[in-house]
Amino acid sequence: MVDPGNRKVMNEFLKIRGRGNMPDIATIASALSSIKTAVDIAKLIKESSVSLEQAEVKLKLAELISALADAKIEIANVQEALVGKDRQIAELRELQNIRERLKYEAPYYWMDRDGTKDGPYCQQCWDNSQKLIRLQGSTDGYWHCRTCDSGYTDQNHSGSGGGVGYYDNY
Q1: SS3 call for 154
Q2: Residue 27 CB neighbour total at 10 angstroms
Q3: Suppose 117 and one of 15, 75, 110, 129 were both cysteines; which one would form an S-S bond, judging by CB atoms 3.0 to 4.6 Å apart?
Q4: pTM for the model
Q5: What angle do CA 148, 151, 157 make, to 5 degrees?
């Protein structure tokens, strides 16, 4: 059985790989076309005989510069999109890493950091919005989330009779 959280991360990864800000085939084709045009003009100028008038040479050079500028812009757009995708993939990998190390022990989460428990973290914040928010607490077994205002008691809480619990709106 696939963990629903892992399935969500994988679906996001596939969505980013397949769609989004990724340049489409037309954008890449346009960039390649601009480069081909620039190369063709450069070859024409190189192979032209002395008989070409000066104005024709200037016109061809202007076309060459324009085609190269268009190609440069298209390539920059593709590069920007790829950097964005790399960033999104890194974020999803980090989220997956957190999911693999985060352990639920009622009533809150703990992070496994090389065999050491770190936390506790708010169950409401993580389950609802994937935010890893450290709970604030004292020695009496009561823990409070300052982000969502949830309260938790553990087995050390004097008023809980040794039970654990979650209390909405502290």
Answers
A1: coil
A2: 15
A3: 110
A4: 0.54
A5: 160
Does 60 lie in the same domain as 10? yes
d(CA 154, CA 14): 39
- The verdict on 66 and 95 lying in the same domain is yes
- In 3-state terms, what secondary structure has residue 152? strand
- Residue 123: domain span: 106-167
Note the pLDDT of residue 158: 62
pLDDT at 71: 85
Query: In this structure, are residues 167 and 160 in contact, taking their beta carbons and an 8 Å threshold?
Result: no
Could you say which of 53, 76, 100 is where a domain stops? 100
- Omega cis (within 30) before 120: yes
Residue 6 CA to residue 23 CA, distance in Å, equals 27
Note whether 28 and 80 are same-domain residues: yes
State how many domains the chain has: 2
Per-residue pLDDT reduced to its tens digit, 86-120: 999 999 999 999 999 999 988 889 999 888 898 89
Nearest in space to 102 (alpha carbons), one of 90, 88, 118 = 118
| R_g (Cα) of the chain, nearest Å | 29
Give the Cα separation of 35 and 122 in Å (integer).
54
Non-local CB neighbours of 22 within 8 Å, separated by 6+ positions: 81, 85
